[in-house]
Amino acid sequence: MQYSKKSLKYLGVIGLVTLLVGCSAKSTTQNDNQKEKIALGQALFFDKNLSKNRTQSCATCHNPEHGFVDDRDNGVSKMASLGDDGHSLGDRQAPSAAYAMFSPKFHYDEKKKKYIGGQFWDGREGTLAQQAGGPPLNPVEMNMKDKEEVVQRLQENQYYVDTFKKLYGEDIFKEANLAYDAMTKALESFEQTKEFAPFDSKYDRYLKGEYDLTPLEDLGRSLFFSNQNNSCATCHLLKAEDQEGETFTNYEYHNIGTPINHELRAKNGVNAIDEGLLANPNVNDVAQKGKYKVPTLRNVAVTAPYMHNGVFKELRTVVEFYDKYNNLERILNPETGKPWDNPEVKETISLDELKANKQNDRKVEALVAFMKLLTDQKYEHLLEK
Q1: What pLDDT score was predicted for residue 28?
Q2: Is 109 helix (H, G, I), strand (E, B) or coil?
Q3: How far apart are CA 314 and CA 297, in angstroms?
Q4: CA distances (Å), origin 374, targets 28, 202, 221
Q5: Domain that holds residue 342
Q6: Within 13 Å, how many C-alpha atoms sit on residue 251's CB side?
Q7: Which portions of the chain are predicted below pLDDT 70?
Q8: Which residues contact 325 (CB under 8 A, 6 or more apart)?
Q9: Beta-strand pair 114-116/107-109
Q10: pTM for this structure?
Q11: CA 167 from chain center: how many Å?
Q12: Rg of the Cα atoms in the chain
């Protein structure tokens, strides 16, 4: 069959339109699938049936109403999480799930000679999906026996059955590992939404010209970004000063000399040294002992207590703790009225990164005021007035 040049040109246009329509349809399908994955992940995030005694969900230890941390007292003043069995206590705080999506995959940076990224305080899981797979099988958390048991629980819910099959194929439940991985990826999809990282704090609004800093907040901002005054920006800054989308962590690992939380250890019965990054099965360098991932400062003012083990109750105490490395007058823990306790791991403290000018009380107050600015708008009502 022969076509004229005009016909060929017309057919070319038709082909292009068909291609564009096909791409648009494919894109729409992908968007719809992503929306369904997010909705599925949200349902899973709040589902207590995925714990042994059906009492605990992801949201239990990462409460969306409180900065995605565990705000329950747990008998230890929120210093660690209580397990599904009602008595197991961890030895570390549950890190905030807010802004966790921005942590890069766990890796060793050859240029910096440092470990970077990952999830959990020791980076033992590389991605959000891998992190999501940990708590259900952890005996001191959700306490499920194995992946098969979790997948059986999933199949009790017809919505899960229908949605998993639609998104991942009719045979998804025939292999427990595949179904479990699909569950973690759905959770990851939900945790990658704006719900977890709105970037709408007063600081973000200040950058857009929508909020005027108070004199104290402005002083705190100047101090925070100044490497000559203190060491905050050394570890809690990824971009240049006052850049939008800053998560206030460089995702490195450091030992800042955090002391043992004796109050918590008296309750959970742990007596072993917490080796921090060295506890990560992918790390065998003893120089990493006692190091923890630098946490985001987003919502830090409403996610007390502080440090990986919840040893400090007040944000001001944390600032004074840092200052003690450079201020010989800062010898007492303001919460106890006693000298600062010895570090749990002394030999690997990041002394170079902690070097700074000493801070007076006014500057300490200013730094606290600045960090309060980093509170998401939906949590501002939790700030102490």
Answers
A1: 73
A2: strand
A3: 14
A4: 36, 7, 11
A5: 202-382
A6: 24
A7: 1-27, 229, 385
A8: 257, 351, 354, 355, 356
A9: antiparallel
A10: 0.90
A11: 27
A12: 24
Report the C-alpha gap between 95 and 62 in whole angstroms. 8
Q: Token digits for 6?
A: 């005009």
**What CATH number is attached to the domain comprising 378?**
1.10.760.10
Q: Which CA distances in Å does 59 have to 72, 118, 304? A: 11, 20, 17
Q: State the Cα torsion 144-149-152-153 to the nearest 10°.
A: -10
pLDDT for 30: 79
| Token output for 364 | 């300490």
Number of domains forming the structure of the chain: 1
Contacts of 129 (CB under 8 A, 6+ apart): 181, 184, 185, 187, 188
Give the type of residue at 210.
E
Residue 253 within a domain: yes
Residue 319 · residue 368 · CB < 8 Å: yes
Tell me the DSSP string of 246-289.
Answer: --S---BEEB--PBP-HHHHHHH---S---BGGGSTT---GGGB
Amino acid at 29: T
Question: Are the C-beta atoms of residues 315 and 370 closer than 8 Å to each other?
Answer: no
Residue with tokens 């206030």: 248
Indicate whether 216 belongs to any domain.
Answer: yes
Q: Please state, in angstroms and rounded to a whole number, the distance separating the CA atoms of residues 287 and 349.
A: 10
**Is residue 149, in this structure, part of any structural domain at all?**
no
State the DSSP H helix or E strand holding residue 61, giving kind and residue range, or none if neither: helix 58-61
- Is 170 within the bounds of a domain? no
